[in-house]
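General statements about sequence and structure are easier to judge against a single worked case. When preparing material for the folding task, we compiled for one chain both its residues and its backbone structure tokens. The amino acid sequence and the backbone structure tokens for this protein are reproduced below:
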Amino acid sequence: MSLQFLWYVPNQARPGHRGDDVVAGHNSLETLTGHARALEEHGWDGALIGTGWERPDTFTVATALTARTTTFQPLIAIRPGYWRPANFAAAAATLDHLGGGRTLVNIVSGKDNPAAYGGNEGDRAGRYARTKEFIQIVRKLWTEENVTYHGEHFSVTGATVWPRPVARDGRPHPRLYFGGASEAAERVAATEADVQLFWGEPLDGVRERIERLRRLGDRLGREHPPLEFGLRVTTLIRDTTGQAWADAEAKVARMAEGQVARDVDWSSAIGQRRLLDLAGRGEVLDDNLYTAPGRYGGGGAGTTWLVGSAEDVARSLRNYRALGITHFVLSDTPYLPEIKRQGDQLLPLLR
């Protein structure tokens, strides 16, 4: 199975995300296009574009970057409460058609700010039940005609989406990525997703989750091709192991001083809770998984970091590959210089 290496495009209303360079026009079309083109030039397949109310609209950004690039694949994070499935299926199919089959989709079910856009997230079980229906309808609209589906959360009657998304061997439609560590989330991933994304957990935790999801898919009667797995993690690399650790510790020291704050309240997310609890097992797990950032404000992919030389980090990522991880979503700040550094130094060791 081929490997995929994605980066992260900072889709933020305010500059300086996770210590990124603060520059004028940080979210202008020219700046974001510069990131996307640098990804093409330095060996990356594309990038995750984050979502959330009070951010620039993710789908609009992805569309603009698709138009200005040739190979860049946007992994577009979207929320079922923000979109209705038929609207999203049509928009994504059109973008995939216009871009020549480059669209990727990351379904996000976590809490946002539904009151601001008229959504209704409900409790965790309700959110994931809604997500399951959303994915089922979108898949049907991408692959079937005259779709009728009546669920608890969404319904469509006699719906057909044109143009169709690009279909080729092994890809009937844009790949659907999904995250979540709760029982409800895992049931959706095991039966409905194409790729389950994990945060930067130690190898033993990732191994256990992969095995559980495979068993769960068998037990629940998964009807799609086998579930694939991905890793979303910060990778801090330098020319030497010693320099990497010195820089990592300096970054954490600045976080401890309050210069970098957690930009999202992750406390209710089970996957995030798993990451934060890792610090109790030690400051460094496996060979080079650094847990200290989570103590001082690191959240999401910034909670744990893989630290070292390019060779050190490549070795760690190959260990995840041996468990079954084939999709990697990496990042570090400042984002643009790290696109180039890690594209030139790390990717050749992995490809």
User: Anything to note?
Assistant: The radius of gyration is 19 Å. The longest helix spans residues 124-143.
